[in-house]
Design a protein that fits this description.
Elements lengths: L23 E7 L6 E2 L5 E2 L10 E8 L1 E2 L5 E3 L4 E4 L2 E2 L6 E6 L24 E2 L1 E2 L5 E7 L8 E7 L21 E10 L2 E5 L5 E11 L4 E5 L22 E2 L8 E10 L10 E5 L12 E2 L3 E3 L3 E4 L3 E12 L3 E10 L6 E2 L6 E2 L11 E11 L2 E4 L3 E17 L26 E9 L8 E11 L6 E6 L1 E2 L9 H8 L11 E5 L3 E10 L2 E8 L4 E12 L3 E6 L3 E4 L3 E8 L4 E8 L4 E9 L7 E3 L3 E5 L31 E7 L2 E6 L7 E8 L2 E9 L5 E8 L5 E8 L5 E13 L2 E12 L4 E9 L4 E9 L5 E8 L5
């Protein structure tokens, strides 16, 4: 006789039970004619027969196969798992599928996506030194941290179809489930190791035991390399063992290296981790814990700097980049002013942060781990702040909408990069009670001999219908387009009234959008701007009508381009104390046919000062008693990820900051997953995309920690454990030991970020600093 016992697809590693049978020895009992029982629906069933109806000992059953087990592996570290079982053989294999997309043995389960292409799947068993067939080497994965896979097993699965073609449905041949939730964890860290503070590195990962240690090596070495030189700093213990977590294996390890008041680890040091190192050689520390690695800062303006903005111009081979730093030169301001009915420091005339100065720019040449500035040039010799800039073109007049170009443009305009046209936005503060928002066109180009050029950003010339102007009437009618002492400059008012939180972005080389708060109405407003290029080198800006995107009191505005016709604006509604986002879509070739999507709430919190609180009054911040609140309008940042996704970072006062993924379909914005920032008082926040990737870096001034600058990695995942999208937490680094102000940043490529800030270390100079976001390096 034959009895069909069915197919067991999951076996318990513990004691075998009738609820979850597994590999092991079973006693077989036989009954001649067991009585039938009844189930809840009064159907007769042999299953309900009692044990005493099977009185005959019929022998034993040995069930072969693997036990069910739980596994974790670390990304960027070789993954080897050992599966226990009975009767395992050389033909055994395992296969990974996404946990949320199906079960082991199901048909039609999709293969893993390209992010997992570096692992071996399926993986064949390897015989170990004791002759057992239970070891599987999956290789090194670069995929998604926190991703969940199922480990499916088969005794002897086919390698191909009967006709010799690759398996069309490999998952269907692996029906035994070993682990339904096999997690991949990327080691990350919170790195706080700056001058005068306790150097503490908190590591998050898998299998962090009480014997684990970290080793800091210099930037010329590599983890696991015997020749790597350990960092040596007086006062720091290196390597250092973890503070005993009290358990055999933990997901968090805290390593306290000590305090130094005279020196810090050299810039660009690597963090190497070892599970149980026998000595201090880097060979015993094979796993690198990636973090936003800061490099040596460079001074781009030696005197007190005001507002700062950064713009990426281009990238070349060999990791070279060219960027523009706009800044407010406070040395050009008069020592005192009669504004507000008395004599005051001119820098303090304005409504926030003493950021005013003459608007200037300097070209930065980024090479290696440094950003080298050229000489600065003042392009608006009046008090200004609220600087922002966007690139429009690199000698491409046809893309600029060049009027009457025809064939006269020639091939010269398609040559190598020689100059750059860009738009700069700023508030003109020559009258502090008015402070209009202005957009001006600049051209960055080399000045001087070819063998030793100096780059400068200078004003472009405005287009006049009569060129040169036929008379005074031309100047009067056309030249009064912005607040500048140069009547020939190509510029325009984005808003003639008092303006706050002005941001300008480029949708294309001929179209801009400016978003701001109109202080007279306190409403959130956007205007679209067309850019025209006229031969030989004259420019024209046409400003569209004001488009109100928030009718209530508004603050902290930012805007990002999603395509050549679509932008997303993020802002704080001060009445409801909510953070919101809204899509703006421009139709046609003009500036006024705008469609608004509905506002979507993406967060809550107070981003502005309570009206009952005196301006600049000392706040009762227990973690930073010297902190004083100012309405910076820099507690919110937005960047486009793709044409359908954007990231919004914001920092409420005395509440945890967040990064939110916003998903866009047409003009409809939807709030997606949220990632918490490691601070409860975020200011000067900016979130930047790393190249064309789906990874970003959030930087901010941490007012809950004395105003030091910090940077945190953000992963943007598609199709994550069954969810459409997810945000993955990454490493965080404290960049400075001193307070910073006016912190801004831009992404250079998939691993490089350039940050700039005012260093409040007693100098208040302008500083640029390069960070390597190596968590994105493949």
């Amino acid at each position: 006789h034959e009895w069909d016992l069915g197919q067991v697809t999951r076996g318990s590693l513990g004691a075998v039970t009738t609820e979850e049978p597994g590999p092991g020895v079973y006693k077989l009992c036989w009954g001649y004619y067991p009585l039938l029982g009844y189930d809840a629906d009064l159907n007769m069933s042999h299953v309900l027969a009692t044990e005493d109806q099977y009185p005959i000992d019929a022998g034993v059953l040995l069930m072969l196969g693997p036990f069910s087990m739980d596994f974790e592996c670390s990304l960027r570290f070789e993954c080897t798992i050992t599966i226990s079982g009975i009767g395992l053989a050389s033909t055994n294999k395992i296969y990974l599928i996404e946990s949320a997309l199906g079960r082991c043995g199901m048909t039609g389960v999709p293969v893993l996506d390209a992010e997992w292409s570096t692992i071996t799947n399926p993986a064949a068993v390897i015989q170990d030194s004791e002759g057992l067939y239970n070891t599987y080497k999956l290789g090194t994965a670069l995929g998604k941290s926190g991703a969940s896979h199922r480990i499916c097993w088969a005794h002897n699965p086919p390698e191909e179809e009967d006709d010799g073609t690759p398996l069309s449905d490999p998952a269907s041949h692996f029906s035994v489930e070993i682990d339904p939730d096999f997690l991949w964890i990327r080691f990350t860290a919170i790195v706080d190791c700056v001058l005068g503070r306790i150097c503490t590195i908190t590591v998050y990962g898998s299998g962090i035991g009480p014997e684990s240690q970290i080793l800091l090596v210099t930037n010329t070495g590599s983890c696991g390399d015997a020749s790597a030189a350990a960092v040596t700093v007086v006062g720091l213990n290196n390597p250092q063992q973890v503070i005993d977590p009290g358990v055999e294996s933990s997901s968090v390890g805290i390593y306290v290296l000590g305090t130094t008041t005279s020196a810090v680890p050299p810039y660009g040091f690597h963090i190497c981790w070892g599970p149980n190192p026998s000595n201090s050689s880097a060979v015993n520390f094979p796993l690198e814990v990636f973090y936003p690695m800061q490099h040596e800062p460079t001074t781009f303006f030696a005197d007190r700097v005001g507002a700062i903005s950064l713009l990426h111009l281009d990238s070349e081979s060999g990791g070279r980049h060219r960027a523009l730093a706009l800044y407010a030169d406070t040395t050009k301001l008069p020592a005192t002013t009669k504004a507000l009915g008395g004599f005051y420091d001119a820098r303090l005339d304005y409504d926030c942060c003493a950021m005013a100065g003459y608007a200037a720019g300097t070209i930065l040449r980024v090479q290696g781990d440094q950003a080298l500035p050229s000489s600065g040039y003042v392009f608006h010799d009046r008090p200004s702040d609220g600087l922002s800039a966007v690139a429009l073109s690199v000698r491409q007049p046809r893309l600029q909408g060049l009027e009457a170009c025809g064939t006269s443009c020639g091939d010269d305009f398609g040559s190598n990069h020689t100059d750059y046209v860009l738009a700069a936005g700023f508030r003109d503060l020559s009258d502090p009670n008015k402070s209009p928002g202005t957009v001006i066109l600049l051209k960055a180009r080399p000045i001087g001999p070819q063998w030793a050029p100096t780059w400068q950003a200078r004003r472009t010339s405005q287009y006049f219908k009569h060129n040169p102007p036929a008379g005074l009437a031309d100047y009067v009618v056309e030249a009064q387009r912005c607040a500048t002492p140069d009547p020939l400059a190509a510029c325009a008012f984005a808003n003639r009234q008092k303006t706050q939180s002005l941001k300008v972005v480029a949708l294309s080389s001929t179209r801009l959008v400016a978003a701001f708060v109109d202080s007279e109405t306190e409403q959130g407003v956007a205007v679209f701007i067309s850019v025209f290029h006229h031969l030989p080198d004259h420019w024209e800006l046409n400003i569209g009508v004001k488009q109100v995107f928030n009718t209530g009191p508004t603050s902290n505005v930012d805007v990002a381009a999603l395509s050549e016709s679509v932008a997303i604006v993020a802002f704080a509604d001060t009445a409801s104390r909510t953070v919101e986002a809204r899509v703006l879509q421009l139709s046609g070739t003009g500036t006024d046919d705008v469609t608004f999507g509905a506002s979507v709430e993406i967060g809550e919190g107070n981003l502005t000062q309570d009206s009952s609180t005196e301006a600049n009054a000392t706040d009762t911040n227990s973690s930073n008693s010297t902190w004083k609140y100012t309405a910076t309008h820099r507690r919110l940042s937005v960047c486009g990820v793709t044409s359908t996704k954007a990231l919004v970072a914001y920092g409420p006062i005395h509440a945890r900051g967040e990064v939110v993924l916003v998903v866009v379909s047409g003009v409809v914005a939807t709030k997606g997953p949220v990632l918490a920032l490691q601070s409860t008082n975020v200011d000067d926040v900016t979130v930047v995309l790393l190249g064309s990737s789906t990874k970003a870096l959030a930087l901010w001034r941490d007012e809950a920690d004395g105003g030091v600058a910090k940077a945190q990695e953000v992963d943007v995942y598609d199709d994550y454990n069954g969810a459409s999208y997810a945000l993955g937490p990454g490493s965080l680094v404290t960049m400075t030991y001193f307070r910073t102000e006016g912190l801004v940043a831009l992404g250079l490529n998939q691993t490089g970020v350039l940050a700039a800030y005012r260093a409040m270390d007693g100098t208040e100079r302008g500083v640029v600093q390069l960070l390597s976001a190596t968590f994105n390096a493949d």
